[in-house]
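agent> call fold_tool(seq_1)
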Amino acid sequence: MSLKLRLRRWRALRGVPELTASSPDGAVVRATGIARATADDDVIVPPLAGVPCVVAWTKFFAGATNSLTNPLVLIERLVIKPFVLEASRLRVLVDASHVELLFPIVENGRMHEISIAVGATVTVIGNVLRDGIERPTDELVFRDAQSTYKLVGNKAHPVVITASVSDTHAR
């Protein structure tokens, strides 16, 4: 991991509290856990990784650099599938319409890629919503199901996804 990427990651994680059962709605929090697909068919397989992933960013340069008839064209694609983060005792659904990926870029010739494989341990920073989009009402006294949290972002404050702290220190 490059020094620039480590510095960006450190700045993103600095001062952000861990998600707990008492985290208020709308608070910016971080959660660390294992990324799991919401459904078996809700994954993508990017070309360089070749394994099922929940997030993939691919950039490809097509054409020739010294040709007037076949100029160099940049093709870029970001695919984000909603995924579940298994974080200790909490179930966290990550729905990132706007995302910042703090991972090293894998390069192979003219193709560059960032991917988050199913089963990878990641840290996600975002705004927390309890029980998905539905907000609890005063009538709700007893819950049968485990409490669900949703981490979301917007254009001004995107969801930040990075490798977990323990994975980074192990390298």
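agent> call fold_tool(seq_2)
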Amino acid sequence: MRIALPLLLLLLGGFHHLPAADPGPAAAQAEPSVGASAPARAEVPMPAPQLPDRDASPAPLTFDILQSKIFPEGGRTVEIHRVRPPVLPAPPVVVPLTEERRAELRRLHPRAFMTTRLLWLNATAYPGGQYYLEWQSPAGGSTFAAWSRADMRLFSALPEFDVAGTNTRWLLLVSVRPSLRPPAAPPLPLRVPPAIPADGPGFLLVKGDAANSLAMEPVTALHELYAKDKPQLVAKWEDRTRLRLAEAARPALPPPPPKDTVIHYWPKQSRRHGAGPAAAPTP
């Protein structure tokens, strides 16, 4: 792992042992390293710039090393090099986004331009396969509750869904069934699941204004998705369950050996190494 840091402050410390005398620009190249010898120049690959030619390889950044400290740490080797301020590559040119390009992006990625809203849904499972749902209106304030026949566990791998051109990102909290709760757990509120009409949307609203479309649309869309794609949701749930059990039964592998760390840093302003004018005195 290689890191280039334009920092004077070292997170790993240890440079207080380096010689304090100013070596000067000419003698800086001949300074001995502390703890180990270090090459006079090092090449570190820079992240690929965001250029039109994505296949072009980034040019390596060349460092003139002035001081070095190399030491073992936690089974790896840590190299900290103070370098002359390098010549950084020019930032990529930002091309203005035209209306034609915006229209093309909307066509290719329509969901990226959707309005986004958040939904927090708490689902408590009761005997008989019914769930007590609680949520708030995305506009805030009003609290809603409903009984549902949908197995809410099947939505555990659904981080978002679309409703009427709006992207809904939600957090689903499914409580443990009361019969499986540990004895020391506080009792759940005593609720008797009602009979949910079979010809309805799959849930029965017991709290809140049914005319509030902003609050009702996400929950209605979830139940429509459940009615339409239940076999696919069940299949995905069973696949995830098998993978989880297989992962739990797999013997734990030893952690990979730590990678060596190389840190290059330079001051933004320094009279000692000719990086620029002197920094303002610290009050």
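agent> summarizing second result for user.
The chain is about 20% helix and 30% strand. The first strand starts at residue 2 and ends at 5.
agent> awaiting next instruction.
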